[in-house]
Predict the 3D structure of the following.
Amino acid sequence: MTLATLETVQRLIDQLTPLEQMRLLEYLTPRIVRAVATRQPVTDAAGATRSEAWQRFFQIGDALVVSDKPGIPTLTETVQMMRR
């Protein structure tokens, strides 16, 4: 689907009443469920799954926390607090 088509569909959906939007969701839900159920796990170029990629991301974050200077607020510290 092109971006222009997606934008057109979004504008059309915005014109629907809440009840019509609910009916549209009821129509789309089984299709989305089937599509998600048949997807293979997403892997990156190195073959890692998303779960493994997130685990690696958090390992890197933990390593950055260790290298932070005590007493000085850092972005890493803030992100670490937010993710918990």
